Structures are given as C-alpha cells and as structure tokens.
Amino acid sequence: LARAGDHLGAATLFEQVAARAAPEQRGRYLVRAADNYYAGGDRDGARRTLAEARAYPLDDNEQLWLRLLQAEILMAENRASEALSQLLAPPPADARPLSPRRGAGLPPHG
Cα–Cα distances in Å, from 84 out to 40, 55, 70, 80, 98? Predict the structure, then answer.
C-alpha cells in the first residue's frame, strides 16, 4: 500500500497487524504505522501511534527511528528546540545506520 502511495491505508493495516501481534512485536508495527501516518499527512495519527509504541518493547533501531520521526513531527510543527532535544539524545550503542528518509533498521514497507 505504501509503495502505491496509500500511506494512510498502510498505517491502518500496520495498526491492525500490531493489534494481533505478540506484545514484543507490537511496538515495531506501531512505529511503522506512525511513519505511514506522517507520510500520509496525518500528524495526529503519527503522534498517537508513536505514543502507543512507547508502551511496548522496541529494539535500539526502532527506538532511534521513533525519536527521529518524533523530531520530524516537531519540526513540522515549528517546535525546533523540542526536535533538537530529540536529536541530541545519544543513539543506542548498537543501533545500525538508518536511511535518510525511512528506517533501514525496520523491515521494508509493503
């Protein structure tokens, strides 16, 4: 769906998958849902699913991607100092590099 440009549809699908996933996997799908909500122009949906994702286990790369996405949302809302705080927090020690726009540490959208 995301590859076809239907980011909001992909976000909804990722939320549905998260609801059925084991708790240790739920956060991963919620971060992907948030990414798609943001890409689809729904900052409220992105913010909501990021907040929900924080309640579940995330690996270091998912935690980093959550922070980067949160910073991007804050920048879009002209909240630069809060975004900078997100970006200045040290990354997890064993985090893998991320692609410039989408989290390479996450499974591909689709």
Answer: 23, 23, 10, 6, 18
Task: Give just the sign of the alpha carbon dihedral 94, 21, 54, 74.
Answer: positive
Whether the CB-CB separation of 68 and 38 falls below 8 Å is answered with no
pLDDT in tens, 61-96: 888 889 999 999 999 999 998 888 888 877 666 555
Q: Which residues contact 93 (CB under 8 A, 6 or more apart)?
A: 60
CA 3 – CA 109 distance, rounded (Å)? 7
| pLDDT 10s digits, 59-68 | 888 888 899 9
